[in-house]
Amino acid sequence: MFKNKKGILKFVFTANIFLVIIISYHEETVITMYIRDAVLGFIEINEKERKIIDLYEFQRLRYVKQLALTYYVYPGALHSRFEHSLGVMELASRIFDRLCVKRKKILRCNFLQIGLSIKEAKQILRLSALLHDVGHLPFSHVGEEVLPEGVKHEHVTIEIIKYLKPILDKTFFEGITEVIINILSKEEIVKNLTILKRIISGSLDADRMDYLLRDSIYCGVEYGRYDWQRIIDCLDIIESESGGYDLCIEHGGIHALESMILARFYMFAQVYCHKTRKIYDYYLSHVMREWYNLFVKNLIDITRYNDISVLNFIENTVREGNNHLYEFAHRIKFRKQHSVIFETSDFCDLPQLINAKKVFDTLQEEFSDYEFILRETRGKIHNFLVRESQKRENVGEKFYVLRNNRPYILTDESLIIRNIPKNFLNTRIYVAYKDKKYERMKESEIRKLIKKAEEIRRSFDNGKKI
C-alpha cells in the first residue's frame, strides 16, 4: 500500500505539546501525517488539512489558553484552543467512522442527495471541527464577555471562515466554505447535514467529549474522566423529526453517558467555576473591555491578538500606574485576589439569590473598611429533554436511547440524568481591604466576616434582619 513503508519521521517541538509527525506516501501520493496528542494519542491529518492548520489564523490558537487564568489554581492548565481543536476533529472523525460501520448505506444515501460522497462528508466534518473555535478571543470565554451584545465567539468564527473562503475553496473544493458555515452557524441546517452538526454541536458531541477529557488531564484532576471509547462505540443514528439524522445511543452506553454528564457537573464545580478562577475572570473582563475598545475595530481584527497581547497590555498598565485599570491589572500580575466569605449551593434558587444580594448589601453597610464583590456563576450541565410529568421543565433536546431497536427518550431511561439539575448556579461574595488593597487579609478577619455573613443569611432565612 505504501511506496515507502517507513515514511519520514520528523520531530517538532511546540509551546505546549510534543508533536511526532510521520509522513507516509500512499499509492495516490496522498500525504498522511500523525500528530502525537497527550490525550488521544496519534491524530491523523492529511496534506490539505495541514495547510489550514499552518494558517496564521489557526496557529494563533496556540496562544489562546483553553481555561484562561485557571493555571493560577491548577498550574498544569496551560493547554490551548489549538490542541483542543485538533482533538475535536479527531473525536468527530472517530464518531463518524463508527457510524459508518453501522449505517454506511443510510449515510451514503443521505449525503448523495446533496451531491456528497462519504469521503467528502467526512472531510467537511473534519474541517468544521477543526475550525469550530477559531473565533475565540484571548483567554477564551472570558474574552467573550467584551463582545458587543448578542455577539458570541461563534459569530466571530463564522466571520473568520468567510474571510478564509478563497483558501478553503481552493484547497478543497468550491463551495465547501458555505457548507462549513451552515454546520457551525445557528441558522437552519440543510437536513442532510444534520448528523454532521450533531457530531460537533449538541448535548453529546465531540467538542464536549474532548474538553472534559483534556481539561481534566491538564488540570491534574479526575473529575472529567469517563469512558469515551464506550460512548463512541454505542453511538448510532435515528431519523430526525426535522429531517435528516440525529445522534442516539444504544442502551448499553447509558452508564458511560451518565458518567460523562456527572463529569461535566464535577468539572463545573471544581474547575470551571472554582472560586479563585472566577474572581480572576472578573479582573480580566474589566481589563479586556478596555483593551477591546482600544484595539479591536472589527471582528476580523481579533485574529491579530492572543493571550500574550492582553498580558502585555496588563504589564504596560501596571508599569504606567494610576489609571482606572491599575487595580485589576496589578491583581492579575501579582496574584492578589479577593477572598471568599460567602457562597450559595451549586444549584441555588431564586430565594437564595435574593438572600445573597441582601447579605452583600448588609455587609457593605456595616463594614465600610472593606471592599465587597458579588459574583454570580452560571453553567449548563446538560440540555436533555425532561418530560413535564417528571419535572417542571419540558424543554430541551430530545435525545434517544435504542433499546431492542426501539427509541426511548433518554431521561425516561436514565434516572441519574433525569434527576441531575440542568443548570449550575452559584453566587459568592468576595472581600478585600479597601485602603490596603493588595495586602492579604488576616485569617482572623476573614473568619469573622464569614461568621457575620452566615448570621445575616440566617436572619433573612427566618424572615427578619439582625
From TrEMBL:
Residues 81-212 form the HD domain. GO terms for biological process: dGTP catabolic process. One of its GO terms (molecular function) is dGTPase activity. The chain crosses the membrane at residues 7-26. Keywords: Membrane, Transmembrane, Transmembrane helix. Pfam families: HD, HD_assoc_2. PANTHER family: DEOXYNUCLEOSIDE TRIPHOSPHATE TRIPHOSPHOHYDROLASE (PTHR11373), DEOXYNUCLEOSIDE TRIPHOSPHATE TRIPHOSPHOHYDROLASE SAMHD1 (PTHR11373:SF4). This is HD domain-containing protein. It comes from Caldicellulosiruptor changbaiensis.
